[in-house]
Recover the amino acids of this structure.
């Protein structure tokens, strides 16, 4: 082989690092590869890896179930299937919380790679969300066992659950994207987000069903939180067809507008901040 | 006549012929500019940003590259040299798409494999195999392709036994070997290499050198950034000297090598040498020949005799006089020093007194240009009373050909035993 016999590649302009770029095939190859290796590392790297990731939400479930059925009794009296509702909520929120928390530090944690290699930067925060989603999927299998064991009747609306998951995935990704680049510049983002995510947990109907307020105004207010809308709709479609839908809890379609606006704003902000900062990540690290 | 050590070329492998002037371009750079904003008062928490919304908005612009244009042809081995902070690493990171340029264009033909800051970017929590595949995909190969090549890469790096070990358990030498192997086997059209050739043990270095020659023969385009002039002269068809973000020279490697040494040599001279401090003044510093007269050339193996004279301007409890001998690349070769007049009960050095330091040392330095930096430290109180960079410069000539900085006095034997 010599330079003379090989066909010369044409000159192409390179424009530096970006959020996407470099072809969709490489993007998805890289996203898949990073997610799978990370998943294997976290959940199969140690002997009890996956077991631990399941024990955490289950332990939380056990404690909360005891507290809210034996001590406070808010759950057991209003919701039809409170235990599975609680478990589903915990597993869904665990996905959101763990993915975003890992997302915050993701770009900085990959510093060595970012500073030395060119690749679409968006892969990094997305890979943490995909890794979280793998775990979420495994946990959902366990949830399914509980759902059937507690006598929830299968319904055709179960087919709508993937739609709920997709919306949750998109929202989680947007939040992770935004936080991951903010953290490059502002290191207190990690702490702020930890507190904020905890607050969000209480502002989402996980521990309590929406109707536990017995106050329409509070129900309407709760539905400003996009996560509350997602969780409530999952409850209606999967567990309790007779529970108030997100639309009902929000007091009509108009009541969902704030949540939709916030959802859209988070998406736009996530995409905007990330694509704006992506070319400069290596310099700011 | 002494041979001129600056033009004496080391025993170099015969370079592959440079590509013809009509060869297609591999890299084309036009009017490249890049500055970094250095915050004068860095705000790195959201809390501060909220509490003081307008502080930390002041930036100082560091202009790393000020309009750089050049072309590299396919099959060329191209060297980029420059002192620390000259902008050469920034240029490499722009070529590798790790930074984005402020202005100008970069055009590259084909796939690129970067090797920057002694690595290709590894995740230390993953095993060697996982990292190899990830890195290959980052460079634009498919996962399947990389899985096919991973054994060859690990074999090249001589890490077969450690292939499934997490990289955090690797030594730095092993990491560099793996990184180098990935870059070599990535089958890219253009390789960008930053400071690499001091990698691993002698056997691995030889392997790298062989691989370089092979790639050169295959007509790959290689861009090498280095301090090491011998490497540039050995391998490169052409080279480029960068200083203060601009191209100073572009052309023949030998010529660039001499320019680089000259730049290094003059670098200290551009600013006034601060030979006078508040407490002491450097009267003179030089090397003496065998006849006792000042000289600037010492033959390898001859004694180096150094003389330094200081004037004390203010009473002092004593000083430590230290010397650092550095080569033309700025690498410190060795240092030595001596305490002067340190005694606790009295201020030992009085204003007006003179201190003369003489030293004699074996000259085991390889041929080349050297600089002696001189520091006068205060005893007891600490701190530097006077620092004179490049107080003395001299040239060492003669001696055995060596790739190193020193050539020690050595006894070496080889015996053939057994057989007929």
């Amino acid at each position: 082989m010599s330079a003379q016999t090989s066909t010369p590649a044409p000159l192409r302009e390179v424009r530096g690092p970006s959020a996407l770029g470099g072809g969709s095939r490489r993007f998805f190859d890289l996203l898949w590869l990073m997610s799978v290796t990370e998943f294997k590392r976290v959940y199969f790297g140690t002997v009890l890896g996956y077991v631990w990731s399941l024990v955490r939400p289950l332990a939380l479930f056990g404690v909360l179930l005891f507290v809210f059925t034996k001590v406070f009794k808010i759950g057991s009296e209003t919701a039809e299937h409170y235990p599975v509702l609680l478990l589903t909520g915990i597993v869904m929120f665990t996905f959101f919380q763990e993915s975003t928390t890992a997302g915050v530090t993701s770009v900085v944690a990959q510093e060595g790679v970012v500073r030395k290699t060119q690749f679409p930067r968006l892969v990094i925060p997305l890979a943490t969300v995909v890794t979280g989603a793998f775990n979420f999927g495994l946990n959902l299998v366990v949830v399914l066992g509980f759902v059937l064991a507690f006598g929830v009747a299968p319904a055709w609306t179960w087919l709508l659950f993937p739609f709920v998951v997709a919306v949750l995935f998109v929202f989680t990704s947007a939040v992770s994207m935004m936080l991951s680049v903010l953290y490059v510049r502002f290191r207190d983002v990690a702490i702020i987000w930890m507190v904020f995510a905890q607050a969000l947990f209480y502002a989402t109907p996980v521990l309590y069903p929406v109707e536990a307020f017995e106050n329409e105004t509070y129900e309407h207010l709760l539905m400003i939180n996009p996560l509350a809308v997602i969780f409530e709709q999952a409850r209606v479609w999967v567990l309790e067809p007779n529970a108030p839908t997100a639309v009902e809890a929000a007091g009509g379609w108009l009541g969902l507008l704030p949540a939709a606006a916030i959802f859209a704003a988070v998406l736009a902000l996530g995409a905007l901040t990330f694509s704006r900062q992506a070319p400069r990540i290596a310099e700011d690290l | 006549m002494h041979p001129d050590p600056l033009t004496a070329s080391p025993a170099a492998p015969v370079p592959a012929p440079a590509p013809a002037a009509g060869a297609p371009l591999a890299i084309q750079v036009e009017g490249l500019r890049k500055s970094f904003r250095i915050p004068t008062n860095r705000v790195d928490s959201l809390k501060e940003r909220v509490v003081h919304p307008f502080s930390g908005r002041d930036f100082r612009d560091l202009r790393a590259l000020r309009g750089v244009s050049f072309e590299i042809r396919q099959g060329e081995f191209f060297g980029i040299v420059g002192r620390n902070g000259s902008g050469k690493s920034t240029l490499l990171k722009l070529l590798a798409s790790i930074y984005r340029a402020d202005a100008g264009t970069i055009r590259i033909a084909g796939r690129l494999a970067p090797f920057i800051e002694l690595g290709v970017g590894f995740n230390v929590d993953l095993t060697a195999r996982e990292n190899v595949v990830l890195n290959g995909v980052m460079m634009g190969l498919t996962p399947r392709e990389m899985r096919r090549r991973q054994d060859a890469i690990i074999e090249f790096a001589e890490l077969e036994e450690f292939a499934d070990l997490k990289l955090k358990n690797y030594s730095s030498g092993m990491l560099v070997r793996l990184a180098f192997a990935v870059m070599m086997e990535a089958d890219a059209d253009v390789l960008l290499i930053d400071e690499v050739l001091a990698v691993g043990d002698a056997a691995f270095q030889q392997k790298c050198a062989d691989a370089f020659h092979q790639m050169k023969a295959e007509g790959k385009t290689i861009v090498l950034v280095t301090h090491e002039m011998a490497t540039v002269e050995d391998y490169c068809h052409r080279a480029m000297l960068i200083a203060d973000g601009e191209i100073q020279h572009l052309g023949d490697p030998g010529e660039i090598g001499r320019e680089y040494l000259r730049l290094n040599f003059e670098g200290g001279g551009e600013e006034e040498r601060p030979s006078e401090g508040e407490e002491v003044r450097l009267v003179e510093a030089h090397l003496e020949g065998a006849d006792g007269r000042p000289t600037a050339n010492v033959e390898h193996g001859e004694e180096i005799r150094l003389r330094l004279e200081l004037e004390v301007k203010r009473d002092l409890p004593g000083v430590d006089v230290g010397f650092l001998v550095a080569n033309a690349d700025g690498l410190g070769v060795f240092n030595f020093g001596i305490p002067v007049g340190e005694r606790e009960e009295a201020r030992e050095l009085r204003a007006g007194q003179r201190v003369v330091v003489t030293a004699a040392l074996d000259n085991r330095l390889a041929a080349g240009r050297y600089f002696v930096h001189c520091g006068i430290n205060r005893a007891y109180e600490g701190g530097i009373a006077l620092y004179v960079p490049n107080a003395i410069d001299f040239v060492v000539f003669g001696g055995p050909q060596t790739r190193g900085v020193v050539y020690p006095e050595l006894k070496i034997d080889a015996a053939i035993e057994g057989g007929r």
User: Anything to note?
Assistant: The first helix of chain A runs from residue 24 to 44.
